[in-house]
Design goal:
Blueprint (H helix, E strand, L loop, with lengths): L7 E2 L3 E9 L3 E8 L4 E8 L5 H12 L9 E6 L5 E5 L19 H20 L2 E2 L8 E3 L5 E3 L6 E2 L18 H4 L6 H17 L3 H9 L1 H10 L14 H10 L11 H9 L6 E4 L5 E4 L3 E8 L6 E9 L5 E3 L5 E4 L1 H17 L4
Helix pairs in contact: 2-4, 2-8, 4-7, 5-6
Amino acid sequence: MPITNGTTFHNKYRWVRPIGRGSFDEVWLAQDQAVNHEYAVKILNAGIGIDQRLQEAQVGHAFTHNNLVRVHQADVATDGKVVIAMDYLSNGAITTLANPAGFLPLPIAIRAMIDVLQGLEHLHLNNFFHNDVKPQNILRGPQGEAKLADYGIVGVSPTGAPVMPSGWYVLHAAPETVAGNGIEARTDIFQSGLTMFRLLTGLGSLEAKFTSLGRGAYEAALASGTLISRQDFPPFIPNSVCRAVLSAIEPDPAKRFQSALDMRRALEKLSFAGHWTVDATGQLIGSDARHTFRFEHLAASGRNAAFAAFKINKQSGRETRISQFTQKNLTNAEACKLEVAFLKAVVEGKVT
């Protein structure tokens, strides 16, 4: 029977509405009529062996962890489809928190990655390699916690040694995977680094590089460590955060964080007073515990450029000019330098 709103599968699931689609599957919100519970149900079409498709369900069912999406049950239809019932998380993917510029505020991105790394720790301890860490596979739980989803191309290693993957996400493929050396725990670290880069700089940042370079040059740049540098991060992303990302995506696995635990601990040490985001008009807006911040940058020739910074008290709504970061009669270069200094000062809590 075709899957449409309101129809049922084996007198069990009543299909409510589609909530996602991949290259080889689709995901529906469905009501399990036997237990009166809503699940996210993935339908895997025939094309690869049933055992291979069921592996996703078996991996997802093996664990109960706050940062891993749980698979509850699976069925095989007479037409060869595999149907997998998972946690339904109504908040959707972490990508829904991206601002109009496509990135997430710094504290949200760091918190999400700490959660993801906790999920990876649990998988790695049991000799599973996720192999598909990306923003689309990070879902938001009921308390805002991040949960890693999709075990479709997970690697299973009885000893924890590298294993050959059944496939990989080209945009996040580690150099050793492309070179034919398989996947391991540090491959997931590499993918986590690229994921964090996209959360901080824009969800489309890697796609843009891939489109510009082409697959061969893109993979070569990842393998040489030249695809991403400090200059690819906005100035309001602190150097310590950039170093964590760049360490995770080192081409040589021996130079990366050596475990999900190592990377998580590095991120947990980071703490910042403020952050920046973008409002609906595309304007950068800063925030800390007490104030929001904005600025005006007037570009002009000669020494006619100017920069002015403002803070707005969150309780009173009163706006005041910040003299520390307000100057006239500047060159454009001087005004740009003052803007960068202001952006960093808000994050570091150094605005007086």
